[in-house]
Amino acid sequence: MRTCLLLLLISILILGCACASKITVGPKDADYSQIQEAIDNSSKGDIIEVQSGLYYENVRILKPITLQGVDSGNGHPVVDAGGSGSVISIMANDTIVKGFNVTGSGGCGCGNAGIKVDSSNNIIQNNIVYENKYGIYIQSTSVNNTFYSNDLINNSITVSDNGKDNRWNASLKSEGLKGLLEMISGPQIRGNHYSDYDEGAEGCIDANNDLICDRPKLIGTGADRDDYPSISKMN
Questions:
Q1: What value does the CA radius of gyration of the chain take, rounded to a whole number of Å?
Q2: Distance CA 138, CA 228 (A)
Q3: Longest Cα–Cα distance in the chain
Q4: What spatial distance separates the first Cα and last Cα of the chain, rounded to whole Å?
Q5: pLDDT surpassing 70 at residue 180
Q6: What's the confidence (pLDDT) of residue 191?
Q7: Partners of 225 in the beta sheet?
Q8: Is the pLDDT of residue 196 over 80?
Q9: Half-sphere exposure of residue 190, counting CA atoms within 13 Å on the CB side?
Q10: DSSP bridge partners of 167
Q11: Which of 25, 28, 62, 125 has the most crowded CB, counting CB atoms within 10 A?
C-alpha cells in the first residue's frame, strides 16, 4: 500500500512539472511570431518570453500565465495597439506581466488603456506605458493586484483604479552581498514613476534627495496610493 502511494505521489509530481513550459515569441527562431497566438496555444502556468521587436496587437490574457518581455538585443519588446482598444488586457487571475513597452491604445474614455486589468492577484512590473488614453485602467471587481517599477509616461489619464486593495509598491528581493545587507537594513521598496507626478509643481518634492517623492501619489479617488513614487524613470 505504501509503495502504491509513493508511486502515485511521484506521478503527480512528474505531471505537475510537465504542465508548465516556456514558449518564445520573436521575429525569428522562436515558437511564434505573434504574442496572442502564443497565449492562445499556452496552458495555465506557462511562461511566454517575448523577444525584442515591434508587435502590432491587442493582447488578451485569458489564462494565468507569465508574459515576460526580454531584451534580445534591441531593447524590450514594444506592443502597439495602433489606436484601437486596449493594448494588453489582463482578464485572468494570478498573471504576471513584465518587461514591455506598451503604447497606442484607442482614445475611448470607456477604458481603452495601455494595460487594462479585469482580474485579481496579478503582478505588473518593469513596464514602460506611454501615450495611451489611460496608462493603467482597473475594473471595479479587480482586487489585490500589485504594480511596481513601471514608468507611466504621457498618457492622457495616468491611472484609473476602480478596484480595491491594489498595491502600488513592493519589496524587491536582492541577491548576493546586497541581499545580505538588506537583511540588516531591510528590503528595498519600489513604487512607480508617473510623468504627471515627478516635479515640484506637480506636488512631488524630494527634500532628502533619495529620488522618491516625499508625499505619496494618490491613485484615483479611493484609498489606494503609491507611497514610493519615483522622480525619475525606472526602466
A1: 19
A2: 20
A3: 73
A4: 56
A5: no
A6: 97
A7: 218
A8: yes
A9: 19
A10: 146
A11: 25
Contact 137, 86 (CB under 8 A): yes
Residue 110 C-alpha cell reads as 470607456
User: What percent of the chain shows pLDDT beyond 90?
Assistant: 80
Burial of 28 (0-12, 13-18, 19+ CB in 10 A): exposed
pLDDT category of residue 127 using cuts at 50, 70 and 90: very high
Please give the Cα distance from 185 to 114 (Å, whole number): 36
Q: What span, in angstroms and rounded, lies between the C-alpha atoms of 224 and 71?
A: 32
Q: Is 179 helix (H, G, I), strand (E, B) or coil?
A: helix
Q: 161 with 147: CB under 8 angstroms?
A: no
Phi and psi, residue 123, nearest 5°: -125, 125
Using alpha carbons, list the distances in angstroms from residue 87 to 80, 106, 160, 215, 224.
6, 8, 15, 31, 24
pTM of the model: 0.88
* 135 within 8 A of 147, measured Cβ to Cβ: no
pLDDT for res 19: 63
Q: Where are the beta strands (DSSP E) in 10-156?
A: 22-25, 47-50, 54-56, 59-61, 66-69, 78-80, 88-90, 96-98, 101-103, 113-117, 123-125, 128-130, 134-138, 146-148, 151-153
- Percent with pLDDT over 70 in the chain: 85
Query: What kind and span of H or E run contains 176?
Result: helix 176-185
The three three-digit cell numbers of residue 195, written as one number: 510623468
